[in-house]
Each structure stands twice: as C-alpha cells, then as structure tokens.
Amino acid sequence: MLVPAHIKEELSTFVELTPEQIAFYDTNRYIKVKQVLSSETLQFFNEQISQQVAQMNTEHTALEDRTTYGKAFLQLFNLWLENDVVKELVFSKRIAKIAADLMQTSVARLYHDQALFKEAGGGITPWHADQYYWPLSSDKTITAWIPLQATPLEMGPLEFSAGSHRLVEGRELAIGDESEAIIQKKLRVTDFEHVIEAFDAGEISFHSGWVFHRAGANTTNEMRKVMTVIYMDENMILKQPENKNQETDWHKWCPGAEVVREIDTPLNPILYSSK
C-alpha cells in the first residue's frame, strides 16, 4: 500500500514550537503537544501498524500467566525495517523536528522505534527510566509517544514525574515490580509533580531518557495502541555498557558501532537536520 500524498505532505510539514514549550520541556523533561497528527493520518497509521503488530506478535501466553512486564504491553521493535508504510511515520520530519527542537540540537538521529500495545485488561507499566537500557553517553535523547487513538485514563496513558530526570536514585533499576515499588516510594517524598492526563487524538508526548514515567492498567475492552520513536543527538557516543541490557541494546539497535565512538550505523539514520 502507498501512503496517500496528502498524508506524506502532513508528515513532512513542520510544527513550530513556542519558546515557552521548549522551556517547559527543558525544566520538566516531558511535554505533550496537541494536534501533531490529523484524525485521518492517525486512523491510517492505526490500521497499518495494527496489521504489522499482528503479523509480528509471537506472544500467546494468557495475560494472567505473564510477569508484570509481560502484562504491561505487547512490544514490537523496528517496524520501519519490516513495513515501508510504517516507515513513513517513523521517518516523519514533522515529528523528528519537534524532537530536535526539544533536545535543543540541530539534528535528530534514530535510535529505534517500537510499538507498545496494551491489551484490554493489560496491567500497569511500572515506574522506570528508559535510559537504564541504553548504552548512550549523554542525555540528548527523547522518545515520541504516539497514541494511535484518543487515550482516556481508563486505557492507561503515559504518566510522568515532572522534572525527575534530576533524581539519580532508581536509575539502576530495570522495569518491573521492584522499580515500581522503589521509585514510587522515592517519588512520594519529592516535590516532582506526578502528571496523569488523558491524550486527545493526534496528541503526542515527548520525554527524555532519564525522566521517570509509568502507565496505568488498561481497564477498557479495547487495545491501547501506541507507536514510539526514540531519537538521539547526531553526535551521540556509544558508552561502555554498564549492564546486560545495555550490552543487548548495543548489538541490537547499533550493530557495528564502537565504544567511545559516534553512533552512525545503517540502523541509526538521521531523520531531521537543520544544517
């Protein structure tokens, strides 16, 4: 299937952020931006990504028999390598420019994409910081969290601890029951605001690698469908992995990259540049 010309045009048309939005992100390391995608574009990619997830999904264990992590979502990676239509969304200059502007860099390079589908009845996504998993040397990283439908609180939208990128404790925890308990306890005694809000259709959030976030359970009868794209600065250096997850990520998402060298592999193309 070809992506309709007007949808391709939308994905390549820039959204200009205000100085206030960039300042808000710089302080809180998360932001929600409304009306990034039109209803028609959202529905188009909802259908295409859903079909691709169905083809790639190998999880057939009943929800009640899975771990907390397994109950959180179906997780499929680098759909852009499998589907040229989905690639159009992942490679969107519209979204990548927002990412670069928020990181305050001139370039946004792809780290990887992933679909996160929380099934009807799916459990919580525990508190965590993404960059625990990433062998990346700086915090010039950002994730675009793209709900493929309006996402009410009952569906388990992403929640943020605003400004918690400044908190070091908990960064060493993988996502799971332990991270949920320990980080939640720590955040309770801090001044970081816990932001829990529904997402409108077409609204996208952006968050940095070290800000703590979670999601509630999906108590509806519908799948909560989300596509994510993770970006990094053009000059990101691969650091010596500090845990097994970072070792795995290195070889999976940056194959061939060398420690203490700039990450520039075929799997990590530049998606936006103002140069």
TrEMBL record:
GO terms for molecular function: 2-oxoglutarate-dependent dioxygenase activity; iron ion binding. It holds the Pfam family PhyH. It comes from Flavobacterium aurantiibacter. Keywords: Dioxygenase, Oxidoreductase. Gene3D superfamilies: q2cbj1_9rhob like domain. InterPro entries: Phytyl_CoA_dOase-like (IPR008775). This is Phytanoyl-CoA dioxygenase. The keyword Ligase does not apply.
